[in-house]
Amino acid sequence: MYNFDIERPGTVADAVSALGREEAQPLSGGQTLIPTLKARLAAPSVLVSLSGIEELKGVRMEGGKLCIGGGTTHGRVAREAEAHYPGLASLAARIGDPAVRNRGTIGGSLANNDPSACYPAGALGSGATILTNSREIAADDYFQGMFSTALEEGEIVTEVRFPVPSAARYEKFIQPASRFPLVAAFVARFEDGVRVAITGASNNGVFRWPEAEVALSSSFTADALEGLTLSGDEMISDLHGSGQYRAHLCGVMTKRAVASLV
Amino acid sequence: MPQVKMTVNGKAASGEVEGRTLLVQFLREDQGLTGTHVGCDTSQCGACVVHVNGEAVKSCTMFAVEADGAEVATIEGQAAPDGTLNVIQQAFQDHHGLQCGFCTPGMVMSAAALLKDNPKPTEADVRHYLDGNICRCTGYHNIVKAIMAASGQDVGAIAAE
């Protein structure tokens, strides 16, 4: 790992100011960034650690929405969101392993937007709103392809607001070496319709599956998905699975999620 | 260079570190606490698990600077000062929960974190919790058995296999 300066601001304002330094990068839980630094795939001059900022941590209900601070760990979301939004708490409880969940944060996961990460599916599938130090971004506008988001340089995810569906389930097919999803589906049933988000599958990162949403909005059964297929052309194809295989798994995982809710 | 101060196993510990110094490097190289192991260095194996403010973390995937002011617990603090093993360590010995012993510090620290939150786990709970701790010797059965025994539950029905 190349060396760098590290700063530990106590407030979002100080973090934003520290991120103004040349080649500065934010560090949240570090469960992806630290291995990346070790592999010398990133070489910032300054790391701005967000872990000491208390105002970024916490889980609360406000205006009917579940509001999670950007610096809240997966472990804390798993515990504290359970009473309000069990489908999302269950997603958080299955990220990585217990020690990783005690460091990794929702803001870090969403800022990184790994094409196989769990939280992007939860945020997009819920129709969440991502709050930063300067604005609010709808999940539909936030995810912009593999490792790409609407965030500008130096912009920090301060909070994520989730509308709470009447039922939701995250089903993942684990890639056994990395334990990341090979393909996973997040299905959320709201009074005015169903949202389906898929992670792990596409070359373009997390995406919604509109045909499945329409079918499930008219009949919330696994059978409603019968005959619906996705093309393997835009899917990730690697030694773990072909694009066609991943496309098939999208249907299987979505059906499993629905079947567990009916 | 940044200065860090923390409490390690109840004692004050401080030192000068680089930005990139990992918590495990500080513990092993600066403090001489070599019980915490580095297996994979990629946060997969869990040999480096310690507790920071009571929570299990992988000390190879956290910078020492981020533990500034924290309470850190390592394997060295688990036994009593006279060397008497704690209940988890004793159960690992009684049930042959280790062979080469390389993963054991992380296993014991993860087990301690599990039993703090879930004092009477099921066998499935234990196996699920150890998802991030890899052992290449035992096949896990005796580790699971040891942790179940440490929780005070009858392990007669758990096959040694």
UniProtKB/TrEMBL annotation, chain A:
* UniProt keywords, alphabetically: FAD, Flavoprotein, Oxidoreductase
Task: Give the Pfam families listed for this entry.
Answer: FAD_binding_5
Q: Does the keyword Nucleus apply?
A: no
- Domain (FAD-binding PCMH-type): give its ranges: 1-167
**MF (Gene Ontology):** FAD binding; oxidoreductase activity
UniProt xrefs under SMART domains: CO_deh_flav_C
SUPFAM superfamilies with a match to the protein in the record: CO dehydrogenase flavoprotein C-terminal domain-like, FAD-binding/transporter-associated domain-like
Its recorded name reads Carbon-monoxide dehydrogenase medium subunit
User: Which organism's genome codes for this protein?
Assistant: Sulfitobacter brevis
From TrEMBL, chain B:
Tell me yes or no: is Oxidoreductase among this UniProt entry's keywords: yes
Against SUPFAM superfamilies, the record matches this protein to: 2Fe-2S ferredoxin-like, CO dehydrogenase ISP C-domain like
Gene Ontology terms for molecular function: 2 iron, 2 sulfur cluster binding; metal ion binding; oxidoreductase activity
What superkingdom does the record give?
A: Bacteria
Q: Which Pfam families match?
A: Fer2, Fer2_2
Which CDD domains does the UniProt entry name for this protein? Answer: fer2 (cd00207)
> What are the protein's UniProt keywords?
2Fe-2S, Iron, Iron-sulfur, Metal-binding, Oxidoreductase
Q: Where is the 2Fe-2S ferredoxin-type domain?
A: 2-78
Q: Which PANTHER family match?
A: OXIDOREDUCTASE WITH IRON-SULFUR SUBUNIT
* Protein name as annotated: Carbon-monoxide dehydrogenase small subunit
Species lineage, top-down? Answer: Bacteria, Pseudomonadati, Pseudomonadota, Alphaproteobacteria, Rhodobacterales
